Every structure is written in structure tokens, then in C-alpha cells.
Amino acid sequence: MKWLQTAAQVILLFGFYYIGVFIQELFKLRFPGSIIGMLLLLFFLKTGAVKPVWVKEGSSFLLKHLTLLFIPATVGVIQYLNLFTGYGLVSIVVVIVSSMLVFSSSILLFGLLAKMPGKEKAAGKENGRC
Q1: Half-sphere exposure of 72 toward its Cβ, with a 13 Å CA cutoff?
Q2: 91, 89, 93, 69: which is closest to 80 by C-alpha?
């Protein structure tokens, strides 16, 4: 029965993805539909319209199997490897620079979110302190 709950939650998560893609195509936005879907999910989670428990198992399942989702992209790169011929050094530099940008922005964002007011009170309530 748990697999049915997980499947339903994955379907709900994909529903937000497809709603985001639909909005992107409807309004001809240059912003990715998947990001729009995630922002919608965040909005509904923050407003309480969607409870975290409704997506917990499905999101855990997807995160646990995340590496499998990269296989098609890897196969695609290998299939078109001839496009990278002669650009090895440039490709390596691009990968390193873009990875550093992602790491840096993630660290900065985490630092900003960790310093947000009200986080201390919420942590204290979870530990039984007020």
C-alpha cells in the first residue's frame, strides 16, 4: 500500500511540473516551466494548501533514485561526443567555472536563509524550548 501512496505523490509532483510547463507555454515565457512548477509547489506548501506529508514519500523516492535520472543526459552527451572534439580544454574550463558558480551561489543562499529572522524561535520550539 505504501508504493501506491508514493506513486500518487510522484504523480502530484509531476502535476506541478506539467502545470509549470503549461504556464510557460501559454504565456511564451523564457523561464523554464519546471522552475515555475517548483515555485508553485513552494507557494502551495508555504500557504498550507499542500501539506508536506502529501509529497514527502514521493520526493524522497525521487531523490533516492536521482542518479538514474541523469542516465539519459549522459547517453545524449556520449552520442554527440563528436561535437566536443577539439573543445576539450574549453569544456573542462566551462564545467569547472559553472560548478564553482553553483557551489558559491548555493553557499550564499544557504547563509542568507540561515540568518532569516524567526529561525531561532522555530528551532527552539522543535527542541521543546521557547
Answers
A1: 2
A2: 91
Nearest to 45 by CA among 66, 34, 33, 59: 59
State if pTM tops 0.85: no
Matching residue, cell 502535476: 15
SS3 112: helix
Tell me the Ramachandran region of residue 85: left when phi exceeds 0, alpha when psi lies from -120 to 50, beta otherwise. Answer: beta
Residues 23, 33: contact at Cβ < 8 Å?
yes
Q: Which domain holds residue 79?
A: 73-130
The pLDDT averaged over each successive group of 10 residues in the chain (130 residues) is 94 97 96 94 96 95 88 81 79 89 92 77 52
What is the Cα–Cα distance from 130 to 89, expressed in whole angstroms?
56
Whole-number Å distance between alpha carbons of 46 and 48: 5
Cα(55)–Cα(81) distance, integer angstroms:
38
Pick the last residue of a domain from 49, 69, 89: 69
